Amino acid sequence: MKKVSDIKKVAVLGCGFIGFSWAVVFSRNGIEVNLYNRPGKSYDMALEKVRGGLEFLATEGMITQETVEEAMGRVHLFDTLEAALEGADYVQECFPEDLALKQDSYKKISDLTAADVAIGSSCSGLRISDIAAKVTNYPERCIVAHPTNPPHLIPFMEISGDNAAMEVKEGVYQFMEAVGQKPILCKEVYAYVLNRLQLALIQEALYLVKEDICTVEGVERAITDGLGLRWAFTGPYGVEELNSATLEEGLKKYKEYMLLGFPQLGKISEYDDGFVEKAVAGFKPQMKGKTHEEYLLWRDQMVTRTRILKNNNQ
Fold it and tell me: Which residues lie below 8 Å from residue 28, measured CB to CB, with a gap of 6+?
C-alpha cells in the first residue's frame, strides 16, 4: 500500500451517481483523477456532472470558484480501462452491484496495476471476499471502500475486507481522512454498517404505515423533526448517554425496557401494489410541490449546510 503522501493519482471506475461524486471528492483535494466509463450517456455527461458537483459546493461556500477550476483541471476522462489505470496510485471501483461483473473487473484491474496499489469497491452489499475471488495478483489489497451517497456531500464511509491486509485497510483509512471523508473499519457483513442501521429503521417505517399505526407524514416527521435532529450530532449511544446520568446507567437501567419491552418490533416480509400507492400518495405532500430534481437539490442543500454547521462547531 502506497503512503498517503505518495497517492497523487486515483482511478475512478464508473461515472454513475457514485463515480462522479468520488471524482469531486478527490479532485477538490488536489488529487489527479482518471475517470473511466464505457462510451455512452454516462461517459458523455461525466465531466458535466463533476463540474456540477463542484459548482454546488462553491455555491454553498464550501470551496471557492478558483478551486472549482483547479479541480476540473485534475479530472481526465477515459473510455478504456487500461488508459484509466495507467499511473494510478489508488483505484476506486464504482461499477453496478453485480457480482459477476465485479469479479471480472477486479481480475482485470488487479492484473493491470502494481501490487502496492489498493483497490477499493464502492459496493453496498456484496462481500469483497466474493468480489476478489478471481484475483491472483496480490488479492490482499482488495477492499470495500463503501461511501454514503453522495460521498462529496456525506463523508461517512466503511472500509472492510476480512482477507485484506491490515496495512492496506489502515492505509486507505488514512488516505480517506486526508481527503475529508469520515471512515470506519468493520468486518465483512451483508450491507455493512450504515445500510443495516438504515434497513432496520425502514422495516419499522413500512410496518407502521402498513398497519395504519400512523401516516407517512407521521413517520417522516418522527425522523426529520425528532430523531434526525439528535442523530445529526449524537448517535444512538450518545442518545442513551444523554437520556440518563451516564451511558452505563442507561444501558443497565433500560435493559429490560429495550430488550423485553419490544420483543416483536414491526417487520414485514411482503407488501403489494396497494401499499406502494398508499405510501406514494402519503409522501407526495411532504415534497411541498417540488419535483424529484428540486427535492434532491433541497436535500443536498440541507445536508451541506448541516455539515458546515457541524464543521464550525466541533
Answer: 54, 57, 63, 67, 71, 152
Task: Encode burial over 14-50: b for 16+ CB neighbours within 10 A, e otherwise.
Answer: bbeebbbbbbbbbbbeebbbbbbbeeeebbeebbebb
Tell me the chain's radius of gyration from C-alpha atoms.
21
CA atoms of 110 and 91, how far apart (whole Å): 10
C-alpha torsion 212→218→220→226, nearest 10: -130
- pLDDT 10s digits, 186-202: 999 988 999 999 999 99
Q: Determine the Cα–Cα distance for residues 34 and 5; give it in Å rounded to an integer.
A: 18
CA 309 from chain center: how many Å?
20
β-partners of residue 165 are none
3-state SS, residue 24:
helix
What average pLDDT does range 175-190 have in this prediction?
96
CA–CA gap between residue 10 and residue 4 (Å, rounded): 12
Q: pLDDT digit string (tens) for 262-297? A: 666 777 889 999 999 999 999 999 999 999 999 999
The C-alpha cell 462481500 sits at: 127
Residue 125 pLDDT grade (very low, low, confident, very high; cuts 50, 70, 90): confident
Beta-carbon-side half-sphere exposure of residue 276 (alpha carbons within 13 Å)? 4
Eight-class DSSP state of 14? -
- pTM here? 0.92
